[in-house]
Design a protein that fits this description.
Layout lengths: L7 E5 L7 H11 L3 E6 L2 H13 L5 E3 L5 H15 L2 E6 L6 H5 L7 H22 L3 E11 L11 H21 L5 E7 L13 H11 L8 H12 L10 E4 L9
Parallel strand pairs: 1-2, 1-4, 2-3, 4-5, 5-6, 6-7
Helix pairs in contact: 1-8, 3-5, 5-6
Bound molecules: nicotinamide-adenine-dinucleotide.
The site of nicotinamide-adenine-dinucleotide has 27 residues, from α1 and β5.
Length: about 260
């Protein structure tokens, strides 16, 4: 019996085998979860499909989170195939490269809207669509970063989006607690992924984190996957509305 045996859920945010969502998927599968996956577009489907199939998944659906119809379609397909689900993993973010490069005061209105829509509002709409089929005891997690509560060079509009995301976690948790549904965020330290490539000087962030973290090492997809396993399993049955740091302690290190 694994920690997730008998549990089913959907993972949004695998782009390739470096994705944090993929690290989470592997941990969940190893503990017996049944998984469904979504992909953003056809180009990514080619990468996501074989990965998903390697974890015995045969529910692999398109979803651009800006497209409400696609989001609704994902959950109606899950209802058709499974009836109810136990968890949702939201590991999605996007901002225009130009908006991340410019000084923060120069962020465009459209760029601000886009970053907040894809990276924060999507958790709200995803939760709304998932609710009718989420079991009591269900768990939702999202991925955030320290730039939500501190100014991190070049994180800019994404920091603001993550602040909105973390606040959304608290409001959703407060609303859904009565239904026995938990909502939490994991705040990961810097990890080399496709999304991270959009952040200027990312290499520098990696070396600063490694130097300052009490663990004296960077965290990786497996570290985040294990923390996700805790938040999605019954081990965290009393935990909701929280932001959990998986960053080797970087967020609490002085200096
Ligand atoms: P990634 O590039 O592997 O994943 C980002 C995902 O977002 C991709 O799968 C992409 O397809 C998806 N996405 C972007 N726009 C979308 C849209 N409109 N609709 C649907 N999907 C969309 O990178 P990652 O680092 O694994 O990012 C996953 C999450 O982790 C993000 O929320 C990111 O901000 C967060 N995070 C990353 C780090 C890091 O250092 N890599 C640190 C903390 C938090």
């Amino acid at each position: 019996m694994g920690l997730m045996t008998g549990k089913r859920g959907v993972i949004f945010g695998v782009a390739n085998n470096k994705s944090i969502a993929w690290g989470i998927a592997q941990q969940l599968h190893a503990e017996g979860a049944e998984l469904a996956f979504t992909f953003l577009n056809e180009a990514l489907e080619k990468r996501v499909r074989p990965l998903a199939e390697s974890l015995d998944s045969n529910i692999i659906l398109p979803c651009d989170v800006q497209n409400e119809d696609e989001m609704v379609a994902v959950f109606s397909e899950l209802e058709k195939q499974w009836g109810k689900i136990d968890f949702v993993v939201h590991a999605i973010a996007f901002a225009n490269r130009e908006d991340l490069k410019r000084p923060f005061s120069q962020t465009s209105r459209d760029g601000f809207r886009l970053a907040l829509d894809v990276s924060a509002y999507s958790l709200v709409s995803m939760t709304r669509c998932a609710l009718p089929i989420l079991q009591e005891g269900g768990s939702i997690i999202t991925m955030t970063y320290l730039g939500s509560v501190r100014t991190i060079p070049a994180y800019n509009v994404m920091g603001v989006a993550k602040a909105a995301l973390e606040s959304s976690v608290r409001y959703l948790a407060a609303e859904l607690g009565e239904q026995g549904i938990r909502v939490n965020a994991l705040s990961a330290g810097p990890i080399k992924t496709l999304a991270a490539a959009g952040i200027a000087d990312f290499k520098k962030k990696l070396s600063v984190a490694e130097e300052r973290a009490p663990l004296k090492r960077l965290v990786n997809q497996e570290d985040v996957g294990k923390a996700a396993l805790y938040l999605l399993s019954d081990l965290s049955s009393g935990v909701t509305g929280e932001v959990h740091y998986v960053d080797g302690g970087f967020s609490i290190a002085a200096g």
